[in-house]
């Protein structure tokens, strides 16, 4: 159950994690622009690769969460029912 909760938390908070990684790359690129410009240009491509890989990682997290929920008997794992308003 704890493993499902961990994967679920990672999937729900994935945009914040991705933004943190991209900001870290940006903060690293700023001093590199003045010390070694080719490295800063390389970080642009690293950022693009990060965005491309994030699509795959997000899909994998969703599949892993659904598989764990099926094994553990948890209902509606990817429905994000915690974000809907109660009537």
Blueprint (SSEs and pairs):
Layout: H1 2-12, H2 14-35, H3 37-72
Mean pLDDT: 87
Class computed from helices, strands and strand pairing = mainly alpha
Rg: 18 Å
| Count of the separate structural domains | 1
Query: How widely separated are the two ends?
Result: 28 Å
Helix content: over 70%
- Count of DSSP H/I helices: 3
Q: Estimate the global geometry from the Cα principal axes.
A: elongated
**Secondary-structure element string:** HHH
Largest sheet: none
Q: Tell me the strand percentage band.
A: under 5%
Number of strands: 0
Uncertain regions spanning at least 5 consecutive residues: none
Please characterize this protein's 3D structure:
The chain is mainly α and 87 residues long. It has one domain (2-74). The protein is 79% helix and 0% strand. The chain is built from 3 helices and no strands. Helix 1 (2-12) packs across helix 3 (37-72) and helix 2 packs antiparallel against helix 3. The relative contact order is 0.14.
Summarize the structure.
By secondary structure, this protein is mostly helical. It contains three helices and no strands.
Please tag this protein with its features.
87 residues, 3 helices, mainly alpha
């Amino acid at each position: 159950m704890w493993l499902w909760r961990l994967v679920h938390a990672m999937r729900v908070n994935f945009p914040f994690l991705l933004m943190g990684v991209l900001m870290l790359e940006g903060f690293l690129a700023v001093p590199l622009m003045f010390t070694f410009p080719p490295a800063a240009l390389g970080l642009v491509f690293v950022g693009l690769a990060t965005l491309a890989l994030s699509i795959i990682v997000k899909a994998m997290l969703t599949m892993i969460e659904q598989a764990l929920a099926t094994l553990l008997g948890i209902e509606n794992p990817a429905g994000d029912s915690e974000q809907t308003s109660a009537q």
